[in-house]
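Figure 2 data, in text form.
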Amino acid sequence: MSRMNKVRACFFGIVELILCAVLLFTPDMGYEIIDGVFFDGYRIVIIVLSLTLILAGIRSIIYYFVMAIHMVGGKTILYTGTVLFDLGVFTATMANLPRIYIMLYLLLWYVITGTVDILGALESMRMGASSWKLKLFQGLFNMVIVILGIAFLRSQNTVIYIYALGLVQSGLIRIISAFRRTAIVYIA
């Protein structure tokens, strides 16, 4: 990881932790930003989640046309970008739905990412990589978030707290990854 990538990872990790603090300390308090439009913790979760997915999708699509179009398996990046963009637009439309739907959507997301992380950690462990412990922790933490979300499914602010827990985990993992030593493989 280059120095600029480390600084970027630390910056985004700190931004995620600050956003988590804002969500945890003001879950139900509404902020009137524009005349008559109130933003509470739930709407902030929707906005951040949809913007994150849309920007990740646009980034993958741009990467496909700039670089991956000439790579083996490059179309997978295009498909991933398209799906992420669509999920971001879909998430943005969920602002007026009951909170239970976004909660189930968020829990499904954590189940998928947790499963992928756990399977990736097991594969890394079999290959002898040293980063499997952090990946396994990340996957197990996602599964704990899912269990807590199911246990408190009927609570009004569960969506906000579950998303804030995910932000804490993501922010800390970004910061830890920025300060980890990376191995450089030389091919002779």
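Caption note: Residues 41-96 form one domain.
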